[in-house]
Structure formats: C-alpha cells, structure tokens
Amino acid sequence: PLTTQVNGHGFLEIGGCDVTTLVEQFGSPLYILDEETLRLACQQYRDAFKQYYKGESQVLYASKAWNCLAVCAIAASEGLGIDVASGGELYTALQAGVIPEKIYLHSNNKSRAELIFAIESGCTIVVDNWHELHTLVQIVETANYASAPPRLLLRLTPGIECHTHEYIRTGQLDSKFGFDPHQLEELFTFVSQQSALNCVGLHAHIGSQIFERQPHRDLAAVMVQWLRDAAKFNLKLTELNVGGGLGVTYTESDDPPSIEEWVKPICEVVQEACAAENLPLPKLLCEPGRSLIATACVTAYTIGSSKTIPETRNYIAVDGGMSDNPRPITYQSVYRAVVANKMSVPLTETVTIAGKHCESGDILIKNAQLPKTEPGDILVVMGTGAYNYSMASNYNRLPRPAAVVVANSEANLILQRETYEDLIRQDRLPERLKKVAQ
Ligand code: LLP
C-alpha cells in the first residue's frame, strides 16, 4: 500500500512531496504516481516466484491498467515484461525501450496491421481465436516471415467462474475471449501441423479484482491438464501464462490476498500437477495490472461548488470526474478520499463527491467522511493507478489531466496536461462548413 505522510502543517505528502504544492506546480486535477509503491509491488511478484517456483518465471505488467512511456519503463526496469492489448499499447511499450522478447500482445480482434506490427517487432502474440490463427498462417506464408515464425501462446477459456463484477469476468465459457476448450483436440491438431507457427505455450485469464483464492488454483490445475493434452499431439509447450486478476484494497472492507499469497498456491499447484503428470516444469508467467499499480497512484482535485439538500444530501463538486475516473459510473466502484490540506481536521461531514460533467451519474464517491471543506481545498482520491488514466476520456471536452511520478521528494512530469488546442488537434472543418451562419 501507498506510504503517505502528514507534515507539520497537517498536509498530505506522497513520496516526500506535499500534494498541495504539486497541484500548485502542475495544476488540477493531477494524477500522482508513487514510484516506490509501484516498484515494491513489482519486486513482490518477482520475489514470490523466485521463492516458490522451481522453474523459470516471468512477470508481465498488464499495461492496460496504465499504459504510458514512464510506467512501462519503470515496470521494465524492475525486470517485468509487458502485456499489451493493442497496437497502440505495443507501440508505447517499444518506445519506452522494452525489449520485444518480453512483450506479449493480446486482443480478441487484432487487426491484420496489428499482427504484422507484432510479427515485425518480434513480440509474442497471444492468439485468441480461429480467425486470428488462420490470418497468422496466411500472413506468415505469404509475407516470408517463415524463417522467423512468430512466437505464439494460445488463449483458452478455462470455464472457471469467480465473483467479481460481470463486466470484468472473463473465465466463464460464455466469454468473448479465447478458444473454447471443447475444441482442444482440433486446435492442437491444427497447430501441430503448421510449420509457419511457433506455438510455445498456453494462456488464460479469469477476470479482475478477484479476492477469492480458489479460482486461480483451479486455473493452474486445468492449465497443466491442457499441457499434458498438448504433449499427446507432439506439441512441446514450454510456457504457461495464468493471466492477472488479483484484487486490491480500495476501501477498508476490501480484503484481497497479498501478492505472495496469490503467487504461492499457483506455483505449488503447477509444480504438484506437473510432477503427477510427469511433465517438465513450464516457464510460468502471470500478467497482473491492477495489483501492481492501483494503490500506487492518487488523483488530486480542487474542490469548487457545493450544494446542500436539507435532510437529503450534501454535495461537493471537484474539477474532474467521470472523464479522469470512469470506474464509479461504469462499475459502481467505491473509492476513498482525504483532503490534502486538512489531514488533521476531524471528519465531521458526510458528503457526496460529484464530478463536473453534464451527467447526473457523474459521482466519484457517495457518502464520503470528510472534514468541513471549502472551495480551493484539495481532495485526494486514493487508489486511482489502475484503469483511470487508461480509460480516461475527453467527455465534455475536458482536457485530460497531467500525471507526475514522485520519488525521494522529487516530482517529474510523465503525462503533460492536455490543452484546448490538443482538443481540436484532430478536428477538421470542411471548407463548405467554414461560413457559419450567424
Ligand atoms: N490479462 C488479461 C488478458 C486481461 O484481460 C487483464 C485485464 C489482465 C491481464 C490484468 O488484470 P488485472 O490484474 O488488472 O486484474 N477496466 C476494468 C478492468 C478490466 C480488466 C481487463 N483485463 C476495471 O476498471 O475494473
């Protein structure tokens, strides 16, 4: 979890930086990423595999949680590979200097251009479906990539359900992702006959923000069975990627396993099952996103207007909202907030924190316990590192906020604040529309 401090003025500090000073310097709203917290989580994953897995392992950062140059660079510098979910994320990871050998490309509908980009970059492709498999064979055969066929993992739907929001469940059979495991024989037969493909392993991902411990054990066991099945088709698969999904603490009531508690049983199950099946240990991969970065970041906003509806509700509004954090309106996600310049003031108020968008559902937190606030106070929403910036939009043409990384009392800009000019940069006004009737 994020290490914060309260300084002598009763102000919040992150990474040794006063949050209110950061807002003065970089503007509001502002994403503030604590480098140490992110690095620590990377190390915890890496160390847990080192401790509990006897074979080779590789942790990938699922960069869909927050894909930008600086975050990819930090994860890579901790020895992590990067999971990318589109050509754009792949491009960013490459530009950040991540080596292609450590990049894995996902998506249930990669375009031909994305597949060619991936092949030429030398990253591994996680193949999702038959159409993609056939397209790959065709690309490799016609474009002369046969001398260095792309490395592939096959993504299968494990048929494991877990209790998380229905939008972020992916493991059940009725999912848009992955090959149907009922077609395993057909799939392995096809792949084993294709010299154009270099299929090295299997992948599955069962969902996100998962607190239960059993589903990933079940997944590990199922995946080893698939490895055994593949061996019957003379397919030598040496990599097993169990996906991501470990949940994080957004509020006091969330109680996820620790990183170590998540990794350990997966390693144990794979080792036991491989021993039982007399299979060599595969290289074990996983690709967490949220549990690496969610708690490493906060969003600082400036409080503006307020509204009291007697005996009903107190609203305060901030200068951002669903455009910089779409998770509350999309998944009814619950967040916690503090007031950076009033950390020592008693929490006497129950307020609903609204965004500034023209949409009544644009509520960041319902019934937050806060000190008495006034316009200009700095509200800090905790745990916004995952799926906030990466899902941000320009709804109502709000420029996207800036982001800084803080470490050792120093702050560096990692995402520049968008300007009004940025907002119309891609707009085109056809000649015949230029004369606006007044
Ligand atoms: N691998 C695959 C193939 C995935 O689809 C995902 C997440 C991950 C790894 C990383 O999962 P994590 O460790 O972050 O749980 N926007 C939603 C979450 C969508 C997750 C999409 N896939 C949210 O804000 O809750």
TrEMBL record:
Alphabetized Pfam families for the sequence: Orn_Arg_deC_N (PF02784)
GO biological process: lysine biosynthetic process via diaminopimelate
Pathway(s) where this gene product acts: Amino-acid biosynthesis; L-lysine biosynthesis via DAP pathway; L-lysine from DL-2,6-diaminopimelate: step 1/1
Catalysed reaction equations from the record: meso-2,6-diaminopimelate + H(+) = L-lysine + CO2
Cofactors that this protein relies on: pyridoxal 5'-phosphate
GO molecular function terms attached to this record: diaminopimelate decarboxylase activity; pyridoxal phosphate binding
Function recorded in the entry: Specifically catalyzes the decarboxylation of meso-diaminopimelate (meso-DAP) to L-lysine.
Family: Belongs to the Orn/Lys/Arg decarboxylase class-II family. LysA subfamily.
HAMAP family named among the record's database cross-references: LysA (MF_02120)
Assembly information from the UniProt record: Homodimer.
Protein name (record): Diaminopimelate decarboxylase
Taxonomic lineage of the native organism: Bacteria, Bacillati, Cyanobacteriota, Cyanophyceae, Nostocales
Gene: lysA
